[in-house]
Design a protein that fits this description.
The structure is a single chain. With 209 residues, the chain is mainly α. The chain contains 10 helices and no strands. Helix 7 runs antiparallel to helix 8 and helix 8 packs antiparallel against helix 9. The chain is globular. The protein binds adenosine-5'-diphosphate (ADP) and magnesium ion (2 copies). One magnesium ion (MG) is lined by residues 35, 37, 78. Keywords: Kinase, Membrane, Transferase, Transmembrane, Transmembrane helix. Pfam families: Dak2.
Length: 209
């Protein structure tokens, strides 16, 4: 299998299906400590990407990431929309001077996650999607540097993502809407961390086929 944006339509369909399958669960999470719209926001973004999938498929990765970022930016409101738009636009920027193999991608992805941290003025441990994205980016870099196979890397990333979600449960939210609840944010998993994990796992399943 060639890892090019020709996979994009299949990847988007997998994300749409996986978010739909977990919609109720994620909505409950965002209702508990947010405003309940996280699934709606994500689905808007995914639907817009689905509509542009045939334009994105023939591009190279850098052009594809730029287009993905701009599409998400235009389509989605909410914190998650601007943060995912930032992730992909930053991925395009940092991927520009790299060969996009696993190692080049791991460097670019780590830089893109740094851009998300800057955009949201947030760090690991604040009960957000970053509690999945940061450990996954670090594990990807380490696994790629260790020369692991794609299948081994993907399995490891799925495990790290699941651990990241679970870690948000006992965190105090200090960013985003959940921070308004203070101590009452504890005891709930963060919705954005959960969907980051779901999307990473769905992407891994497509790439492992
Ligand atoms: P909104 O909070 O505007 O309604 P969403 O519900 O779509 O937007 O997204 C909420 C998710 O966004 C949270 O669960 C959290 O994971 C993530 N989030 C919120 N603020 C930040 C931030 N400053 N940095 C990183 N992620 C954040
Ligand atoms: Mg919300
Ligand atoms: Mg909202």
């Amino acid at each position: 299998m060639s890892l090019t944006p020709s996979l994009f339509p299949e990847l988007i369909q997998a994300l749409i299906d996986d978010i739909a399958a977990h919609a109720e669960e994620v909505t409950e999470l965002d209702q508990a400590i947010g405003d309940g719209d996280h699934v709606f926001n994500l689905q808007r973004g995914l639907q817009a990407l689905h509509e542009h999938a045939s334009e994105i498929a023939p591009l190279d990765w850098v052009a594809a990431w730029q287009k993905i970022g701009m599409t998400v930016m235009a389509a989605v409101g909410g914190a998650s929309g601007s943060l995912y738009a930032t992730l992909f636009i930053a991925l395009a920027k940092s991927g520009r001077d790299k060969v996009i193999d696993i190692s080049g991608f791991s460097d670019a992805f780590l830089q893109a996650v740094e851009a998300v941290k800057l955009r949201g003025k947030a760090e690991v441990g604040e009960k957000t999607m970053l509690d999945v994205l940061v450990p996954v980016a670090l594990a990807l870099r380490d696994e790629a540097a260790a020369g692991k196979s794609l299948a081994e890397i993907l399995d490891r990333l799925c495990q790290v993502a699941a651990d990241g979600v679970e870690a948000t449960r006992d965190m105090l939210a200090t960013k985003g809407r959940a921070s308004f609840l203070g101590e009452r944010s504890k005891g709930h998993i963060d919705a954005g961390a959960k969907t980051a994990q779901l999307m990473i796992t769905a992407i891994a399943a497509v790439l492992k086929k």
